[in-house]
UniProtKB/TrEMBL annotation:
InterPro entries: IFT81_CH (IPR041146), IFT81_N_sf (IPR043016). Coiled coil: none annotated. This is IFT81 calponin homology domain-containing protein. Signal peptide: none annotated. It comes from Bracon brevicornis. Residues 1-37 form the IFT81 calponin homology domain.
Amino acid sequence: QRLVKADQETIYEVLKWLLTNKELAKQRAYLARFLVK
């Protein structure tokens, strides 16, 4: 819910996770294409 409201602290935490786990995020994004209808 905080992400939808664009809470700055939440956005920074998400970006931090994405940048520190780049390969995992890339793999999840790839797999998500096949899991979404």
